[in-house]
From TrEMBL:
Residues where pyridoxal 5'-phosphate binds: G239, E274, P275, G276, R277, Y372
Family: Belongs to the Orn/Lys/Arg decarboxylase class-II family. LysA subfamily.
Domain Orn/DAP/Arg decarboxylase 2 C-terminal: from-to ranges: 30-370
One GO BP annotation of this record: lysine biosynthetic process via diaminopimelate
Function: Specifically catalyzes the decarboxylation of meso-diaminopimelate (meso-DAP) to L-lysine.
Active-site residues, as the UniProt record annotates them: C344
Domain Orn/DAP/Arg decarboxylase 2 N-terminal: 35-281
One function term, GO molecular function aspect: diaminopimelate decarboxylase activity
Xref: Gene3D superfamilies: Alanine racemase (3.20.20.10), Lyase, Ornithine Decarboxylase, Chain A, domain 1 (2.40.37.10)
Pfam families: Orn_Arg_deC_N, Orn_DAP_Arg_deC
Full protein name: Diaminopimelate decarboxylase
Amino acid sequence: MDHFEYRDGHLYAEDVAVADIAAAHQTPVYVYSRATLERHWHAFDDAVGTHPHLICYAVKANSNLGVLSVLAKLGSGFDIVSGGELARVIEAGGDPARVVFSGVGKTSAEIRYALEQGILCFNVESPAELHRINAVAADLNVKAPISLRINPDVDAKTHPYISTGLKANKFGIAREQALQTYELAATLEHLNIVGMDCHIGSQLTELAPFVDALDRLLTLVDELADKGIHLQHLDVGGGLGVPYQDETPPHPKAYAAALAERMAGREALTLILEPGRAIAANAGIMVTQVEFIKEGEDKHFAIVDAAMNDLIRPALYSAWQNIIRVDTHTQAPLRVYDVVGPICETGDFLGRDRELAVAPGDLLAVRSAGAYGFVMASNYNSRCRPAEILVDKAQMRVVRERENQKDLWKGEYKLP
Ligand SMILES: Cc1ncc(COP(=O)(O)O)c(C=O)c1O
Ligand SMILES: N[C@@H](CCCC[NH3+])C(=O)O
C-alpha cells in the first residue's frame, strides 16, 4: 500500500492530482510521497522494537534533498558511499553521528571529510583501506571508528549484478580472513573498532539469506569476543526487496522483527539496518507523456517522452516496473505495446508487451520508481534530467527543478 491511488479515475499522489503536477512541471517528472516514506521508515524502526538499533537509510537509493530531509526529521541514520552523499545528508539536516560510510574505494579526501564531520563509522572492505583510514586519522590526530564488512558467502538469490555477498563479488572481507583482519585493525593506533557489517545484495525476496548471514556474523562476533575484541554494533546492511510485479518479499515488519529476535540477549550490540529500496521504491513514480503511437511490423510502440536516461532499470537489469495510466478515462483501444523512449538504443524501453489503452498526449506513470530511479539518471543523448517533486499532503514541493536546456547547451559558441 502506498499513497498513490485513483480517485474518480484520476491518479493522486497523496492529495495532489498527478496530472496537475505534470501540467505544472512538464514530463518526465519524478513524484515522491512524504507519507509513504515516513510509513516505510517507521515499519522498520517500530518492528525492531526495544532492541537498541539504528535505521541507516541507504542514500544511494534516492538522494533527493527533500527525501533525505523527511528521513532526517524522523531521526534516521544514513548509509553513504561517497563524500557527495555525506554532503547531501548534512545539507538535508541529517546527523553525521548517525552516518555509516560503505564502499570499496573510499578516497583519502572522502575519509578526511567524513572524519571531520564525525561520522558513526567506516564500513571497511579491505586491509588496504584500513591502512588508508589509519593514515588519514593519524594526520588529523584522531581515532577513526571502523567496522569490517564481512562477506558471509550466502547466496542472496537475486539478479547477479546486484548480488554482493558471494565469494566471487568484489565486496567485503572473506569470512576466513575476518579474524586476522580484525587483529590487524587492533594494531593500528588510529583506529577504533566499533562494529561488524555485511550487505548480501539487493532486491532479496526471501528472509532466509538475511537470517543466515546474521547467524554467521554472530558466530564471528563471539569468536572476536573470545579474543578480547568487543563490538558495539552489528550492521546487517540493506537489500530487502519490494513487489515490482509478482514478487512476494517479506514485509519490512516481519524482516526487522526476525532480525531483532536473533539479537535477543545481546542488548550491548546495537542492530543497524541499511534499507534503501524498501523505503523509497514505492514512495515514488515517474510520470511520462505519450508522444506518438507507432505501428511496427510486429509490434505496436507507445513512444513516450521518458527514456533510459531517466529510468535505466528496465534497460540495465531487464527490470519490470508497472506502467499505468494517470487518468483511466479513455476512448483508446486496449492493445499490447512496447513503451519506448526517444533514445537511439534498442534497449531504450520502459516496458515491453504491456497491455494499455493509450493515445498521444496521454500521461503514464511508472510505478515503484522512487528507488534507483532519478539517482541513476544521466544526460545521455544530451537530454535534460527530470524535475523531482515531493508531495506532502496537498502540497507539491519542487525539490529539484528540471534542468534547463540552456544548462546542457549554452547556445552559440566559437572554437578557440
Ligand atoms: C552497503 C549497502 N547498504 C545498503 C544498500 C541498500 O540496498 P537496498 O536498496 O537493496 O536496500 C546497498 C545497495 O545494495 C549497499 O551496497
Ligand atoms: N541499482 C540497483 C540496485 C543496486 C544496489 C546497490 N548496491 C537497482 O536498481 O535495482
